[in-house]
Structure formats: C-alpha cells, structure tokens
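Make up an example, fold above all:
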Amino acid sequence: MLEVYDKSLKRIAFLQNAFEIKRTSVLSGVGSLSFKLPKDDPKLEYCQYMNFVRFGLKEGGIIKYTDYYRITQASKMEDSGVPYVEFYCEHGIITLIDKLLFGTFSVGGYNFKTRQVLEWILDKQDPVYWQLGDCDFSRQFEYSWTCENLLAALYSVPNCFSSDYIFTFDMSVFPWIVNLKEFDRNGDAKYYVHKRLNQLSIKKTSNAAEIATRIYPLGYGEGINQLTIKDVNNGIPYLEAPKEIIEKYDIIERPFIDRRFTNAENL
C-alpha cells in the first residue's frame, strides 16, 4: 500500500489502487519509486508534485513503511486508451537539491573535521528535513563550492576519501537522519544476485583509457602556483604504480586534479 503526505508530512491519502510499484535503491545516490494509478481513481488529486509517497510492506501481519519519496513526475497518455497515470518519485534526500549555496564557500581544513563539514552543509537547509546522525570519518579536508546545491555538496564530501563509504538514511523520525558510514565489504550482504536466478547476463568492459601507472596530483591554484606534492614527496611531483604494473603497461601518465585540496600532505 502507498500513502501520500503533503509537504509538511501530513498524511492525506491511501492509494489502495496503486499497482506496478517499483523501488530502486542507489548506493550513496538518489533512489526512486514509481507506481501507476487508474485514470479514474479519485485519489489522483492528492498526487501533486512535491508531495511525498511512502510504501508500506506487510511483514508478519504488520505493515512496515519504507523511506519517503517525493513526487517529481507524472505521465498521462492522452486519447490513447491507456487506462492509467504513471508517477515517478525520488528519495527524500532530493529535498537537499532545493537549496543553493549561492556564491563561493570554503569549508574545512585544520581542526574542522568531516562531521563539522557535513553539519555546516545541513545547517543551510530551509525548511529543515535532514539532520546528521553517525559519521564514521574524521578527516580534515578543505572543500570549496561555488553555486552548488546542498545535495551535491553533501555527496562530494567523501569523494576524496581513500576508504569505502556509504550514505544511509533513517526516516522513522523527523527531521530525517542521514549517516555517513564506512562501507564494510566483508559484512553481511542485504541483497544477493544469483547466477541463472535473478542475474540475466554479465557484460564485461575494459577501457584502456582508464589505465595510469604514473599520476601527477594537482590541487588548489593555477599554473606555476598550483599545489603539487613535490614538497612532501622528495621533490618528485608524481606517484607511480608498483614495478610489476609498470612492466606490464609501461609508463602511462595522467593528471589527478582536485582543487579542493589546499594541503600537500592531504593531496
């Protein structure tokens, strides 16, 4: 069953006639939900853009509700005989895209750790939908954003981490909670793909253009003033792959440019 909520999260309708309900989860991205309603369903009037939808799944006789999704698209085939309207919704984290960091902002650096950067971003919400929960990282990177929305800024924070990470959400309370967690590749899987069961095929693609055996990290600045790693790498401006990799591919040089780095050691 689907429930509809207005922008203030007041429940306004049950969509008992919804069908072909599909949910998609995206690792540290924006998940989606889609569904169809008959064209003559009186509940169509509640499925307005920017309202929220929540999916209820019955387990052991108890309905457990999933995350909230915001209605962003409706498709109605006029004069075609198609007897339904199809709706597309995006996960509630998409609300962060509504607020713009207008101008240029630099946040982070020495003694201003990952949690404080994330809280700084979420403090810019209006209205406030999200609060920070767990943060498993304590880096001291400096970030710079120019006319960026809050979602893009939030998701960019761990991009420069060397560790695997995942954003998780708890929408059982309000404001909703977003967590930045270390991703445990050795943990128990939530979903499984089984050959010949729900895996239809495997496509393997190799791209030689992505191979590099020597990279030149470049940070903040331009030209001769651009930050390099020479001062912290014995005067050498690059990093090399192990000898056996170089023997296999030869020397293939690529730049690594990320102007958010203002400290050579972090770079």
Observations:
- The chain has three helices and 15 strands.
- Helices lie at 114-122, 150-156, 243-249.
